[in-house]
C-alpha cells in the first residue's frame, strides 16, 4: 500500500507541477499542447488493450508508457475516461458526462483547488447571464465553456464572448471552450480595447481516442496555468459565487450583475418600490434594479447591477472619494425620506474599473422615521437607537462615521469628525447628510476637484 501511494503521489506531483511563467499569447498554442515531462505510466495489460493498436506510437509514447509500476489509482481517477468514455444520445444533457470526463477531469488534475459550476438554470432571464460551464480559482472564473447538442443550430462560440465582460484587470488572458456534440474547440479570451477577442487553439474530436488524448493534454496544461493567472487578478474579485444568508436570502454574484432570491414576495415588492422611487429621482452612486420576477410556485428574485468589489479605501484620498460618493447618495435619498439603515463596507462597493464607490443592499431600508426596533442587525456596526425603538435618518450618519473608523487610513481630521460629530450618542445632535457633505467638500476641496467630483469654479 505504501508503494501504491508513493507512485500515485509522485506521478500526480509531476502532472500538476505549476509552470514557472505565464506563456505569451504568441507561444500559448504550442505550450498548451506539450506532453508531460515524463510519460504517464500505464499497466502493460491496459496499455496493450487500449492504446497500442489504436494510436500512432510516435504520438502515444510522448504521453503514455507501459510499466508494471503504474498507479491504478491515477488511472481510475484521471485516465480511464479517456479510453472508456460515456456514450451520449442526442440531447445536450446526455453529453455532460462526456464533456466532464474530457474537459473537467484534466483541468482538475492540473488545478486541484479549483471548483466548477454548471449552469442548470432554465429561466431565460438568468441562463444568459452565465456560461454553461465555469471553472473557478479562488472565486474567479478563469475557464468557461459553452455547450450545444449536435442538432442545436445556435453558435456556442459566439456565446463565449457575448456573455463575457472583462473584469480581470491586467490578466493577459483566460481560457474557454465551445462544444457541439463530440467536437470541442479550446480557445483563449483576452481584452482587445473595449471588446473581448477569442483565439481558437485546437479542435478535438472526442469521438476518437487520439482526440480525447489531445483534450487531456490541453486541459491538464490549462489547469496548471490557472493558479498563476489568478495572481494577476485583483483578490477582491468574485464571480459565479453563491452566498446563503441566515435570513434565507440567496445571493448569486455573476460577472456584471447580482441575483438575489428571497423567501418573501412582499420583501421583493418593498425593495421594488424603493428602487422605483430612487430611480425616478435619479439618485447617484447606488446600484439599480434591472429585473424583478414574482410568480406563484417559484422563488421570487431580483437582478441588480452593477456588480462591484468589496474594497476598503487604502489612502486618505481614496477614503475622501468614497465618502463623497456615499454622502452624495445618502443626501439624495434622505431628501426622499428614505434611510438605508445598513451602511457598512460590505454594502459600500467599489466599481470594478474606477475609484468610485456606490451603495447596495437596500433590503433593510425604509421610510424615516421608524418606530420599530431592528434587532437582527449587528450592534457593533449600527447606531444604538436602531435596536431600542424609534429612530430616523441619523442612523445613516452614525454609520458613515463607523465607515471612517473601519479603514486603515489614519486621518486625524476624518477620525476626529467621525467620533465627535457623526457618532455622537445623542442622535439629534448629529449633522444632516448635506452638512457632512459640505464639510467634506470644504475640507478636501483639492482632492475632490482633482477627481472632478466638484467643480473648480
UniProtKB/TrEMBL annotation:
PROSITE patterns: PROTEIN_KINASE_DOM. InterPro entries: Kinase-like_dom_sf, Prot_kinase_dom. SMART domains: S_TKc. It comes from the Eukaryota. GO terms for cellular component: cytoplasm; nucleus. One of its GO terms (biological process) is mitotic DNA damage checkpoint signaling. Gene3D superfamilies: Transferase(Phosphotransferase) domain 1. GO terms for molecular function: ATP binding; protein serine/threonine kinase activity. Residues 162-457 form the Protein kinase domain. This is 13619_t:CDS:1. The lineage of its organism: Eukaryota, Fungi, Fungi incertae sedis, Mucoromycota, Glomeromycotina.
Amino acid at each position: 500500500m505504501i508503494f501504491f501511494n508513493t507512485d500515485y503521489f509522485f506521478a500526480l506531483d509531476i502532472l500538476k507541477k505549476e509552470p514557472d511563467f505565464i506563456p505569451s499569447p504568441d507561444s500559448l498554442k504550442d505550450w498548451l499542447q506539450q506532453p508531460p515531462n515524463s510519460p504517464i505510466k500505464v499497466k502493460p495489460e491496459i496499455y496493450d488493450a487500449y492504446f497500442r493498436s489504436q494510436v500512432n506510437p510516435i504520438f502515444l509514447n510522448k504521453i503514455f508508457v507501459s510499466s508494471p509500476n503504474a498507479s491504478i489509482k491515477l488511472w481510475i481517477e484521471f485516465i480511464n475516461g479517456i479510453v472508456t468514455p460515456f456514450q451520449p444520445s442526442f440531447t445536450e444533457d446526455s453529453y455532460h458526462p462526456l464533456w466532464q470526463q474530457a474537459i473537467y477531469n484534466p483541468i482538475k488534475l492540473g488545478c486541484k483547488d479549483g471548483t466548477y459550476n454548471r449552469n442548470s438554470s432554465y429561466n431565460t432571464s438568468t441562463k444568459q447571464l452565465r456560461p454553461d460551464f465555469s471553472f473557478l480559482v479562488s472565486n474567479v472564473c478563469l475557464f468557461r465553456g459553452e455547450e450545444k447538442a449536435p442538432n442545436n443550430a445556435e453558435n456556442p462560440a459566439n456565446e463565449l464572448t457575448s456573455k463575457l465582460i472583462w473584469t480581470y484587470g491586467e490578466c493577459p488572458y483566460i481560457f474557454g471552450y465551445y462544444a457541439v456534440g463530440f467536437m470541442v474547440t479550446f480557445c483563449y479570451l483576452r481584452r482587445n480595447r473595449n471588446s473581448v477577442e477569442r483565439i481558437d487553439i485546437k479542435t478535438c474530436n472526442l469521438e476518437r481516442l487520439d482526440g480525447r488524448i489531445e483534450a487531456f493534454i490541453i486541459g491538464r496544461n490549462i489547469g496548471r496555468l490557472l493558479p498563476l493567472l489568478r495572481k494577476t487578478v485583483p483578490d477582491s474579485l468574485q464571480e459565479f459565487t453563491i452566498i446563503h444568508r441566515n435570513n434565507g436570502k440567496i445571493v448569486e454574484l455573476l460577472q456584471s450583475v447580482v441575483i438575489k432570491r428571497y423567501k418573501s414576495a412582499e420583501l421583493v415588492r418593498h425593495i421594488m418600490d424603493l428602487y422605483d422611487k430612487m430611480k425616478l429621482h435619479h439618485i447617484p452612486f447606488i446600484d439599480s434594479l434591472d429585473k424583478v420576477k414574482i410568480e406563484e410556485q417559484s422563488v421570487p428574485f431580483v437582478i441588480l447591477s452593477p456588480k462591484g468589489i468589496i474594497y476598503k479605501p487604502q489612502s486618505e484620498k481614496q477614503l475622501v472619494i468614497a465618502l463623497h460618493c456615499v454622502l452624495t447618495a445618502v443626501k439624495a435619498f434622505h431628501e426622499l425620506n428614505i434611510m438605508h439603515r445598513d451602511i457598512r463596507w460590505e454594502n459600500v462597493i467599489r466599481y470594478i474599473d474606477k475609484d468610485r464607490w456606490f451603495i447596495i443592499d437596500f433590503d433593510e431600508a425604509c421610510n424615516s422615521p421608524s418606530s420599530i426596533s431592528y434587532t437582527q442587525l449587528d450592534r457593533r456596526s449600527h447606531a444604538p437607537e436602531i435596536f431600542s425603538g424609534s429612530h430616523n435618518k441619523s442612523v445613516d450618519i452614525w454609520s458613515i462615521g463607523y465607515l471612517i473608523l473601519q479603514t486603515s487610513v489614519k486621518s486625524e481630521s476624518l477620525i476626529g469628525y467621525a467620533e465627535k460629530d457623526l457618532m455622537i450618542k445623542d442622535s439629534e445632535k448629529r449633522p444632516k447628510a448635506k452638512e457632512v457633505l459640505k464639510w467634506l467638500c470644504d475640507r478636501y476641496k483639492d482632492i475632490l476637484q482633482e477627481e472632478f467630483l466638484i467643480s473648480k469654479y
